[in-house]
Amino acid sequence: MKLIILETYSQASEWAAKYIRNRIVQFGPGPGRFFTLGLPTGLPRDHPESYHSFMWNNFFKHIDISPENVHIMDGNAPDLQAECDAFEEKIKAAGGIELFVGGIGPDGHVAFNEPGSSLVSRTRVKTLAVDTILANARFFDGDLSKVPTMALTVGVGTVMDAREVMILITGAHKAFALYKAIEEGVNHMWTVSAFQQHPNTVFVCDEDATLELRVKTVKYFKGLMLVHNKLVEPLYSMKETGAERSQSKKPYSD
């Protein structure tokens, strides 16, 4: 497990972006190997708060990717569980997930795997907790009646099958969740803690998120930053030859 500690939110975001870029170049994805682990909530596709709209407006339309290489589940499918099962099959057909990138809630949930979720769960339909609905109300003008009460989500087991997992944790309101994630044992009430048992997990956080950690924990991981920064320096380019990229084809693991 790696814990990357940067001073500010923007620095943590920049480090994560550089790391993802290098991993994409190293992996060399091609047709049929692009996935978005979308978490639709039953909103119309063109709704401004739908996951489909969010990802296209904030990411996909700014990069070189064909629509057919993006896989986002249909939250309005007639058979939602069949939609989830098909998504799992698509992941397998693509060779599995190379790098999963996600964030967490203050209660330590990953995707919509909220407290109490099975740590071996697969992509499924998930009823949302009251706290999640309340947190999402800000996207719907505070009107709780407009907030979706269910979602389709990848399971913890689905994420655990990824070859690498990156979790972004920033802000003082996520500090207790980070503490639960790395300093206590694995617990299904804090689903992010499952990644303690993943062979290649990278937690990226800012200083505020470390407020609940032991001083010696923070000092230990900060002492490794000279090594960890080699993962993002230099930045790789798609123009490099395959031989150049193969020198660091896989990141080292702890």
Automatic annotation (TrEMBL):
For the keyword Isomerase, the answer is yes
CDD domains for the chain: GlcN6P_deaminase
Localization of this protein: Cytoplasm
Q: Which UniProt keywords apply?
A: Carbohydrate metabolism, Cytoplasm, Hydrolase, Isomerase, Phosphoprotein
E.C. numbers: 3.5.99.6
**UniProt cross-references to SUPFAM superfamilies, sorted A to Z:** NagB/RpiA/CoA transferase-like (SSF100950)
- What Gene Ontology terms describe what this protein does at the molecular function level? glucosamine-6-phosphate deaminase activity; identical protein binding; isomerase activity
Glucosamine/galactosamine-6-phosphate isomerase domain location: 43-198
Q: Name one Pfam family in it.
A: Glucosamine_iso
Instruction: Provide the reaction this enzyme catalyses.
Output: alpha-D-glucosamine 6-phosphate + H2O = beta-D-fructose 6-phosphate + NH4(+)
GO CC terms:
cytoplasm
Q: Which InterPro entries match?
A: Glc/Gal-6P_isomerase (IPR006148), Glucosamine6P_isomerase (IPR004547), Glucosamine6P_isomerase_CS (IPR018321), NagB/RpiA_transferase-like (IPR037171)
Superkingdom of this protein's organism: Eukaryota
Q: How does it assemble?
A: Homohexamer.
Q: Which family does it belong to?
A: Belongs to the glucosamine/galactosamine-6-phosphate isomerase family.
Q: Tell me the function of this protein.
A: Catalyzes the reversible conversion of alpha-D-glucosamine 6-phosphate (GlcN-6P) into beta-D-fructose 6-phosphate (Fru-6P) and ammonium ion, a regulatory reaction step in de novo uridine diphosphate-N-acetyl-alpha-D-glucosamine (UDP-GlcNAc) biosynthesis via hexosamine pathway. Deamination is coupled to aldo-keto isomerization mediating the metabolic flux from UDP-GlcNAc toward Fru-6P. At high ammonium level can drive amination and isomerization of Fru-6P toward hexosamines and UDP-GlcNAc synthesis.
Q: What is this protein called?
A: Glucosamine-6-phosphate isomerase
Q: Which organism is it from?
A: Neopipo cinnamomea
Q: What is the lineage of its organism?
A: Eukaryota, Metazoa, Chordata, Craniata, Vertebrata
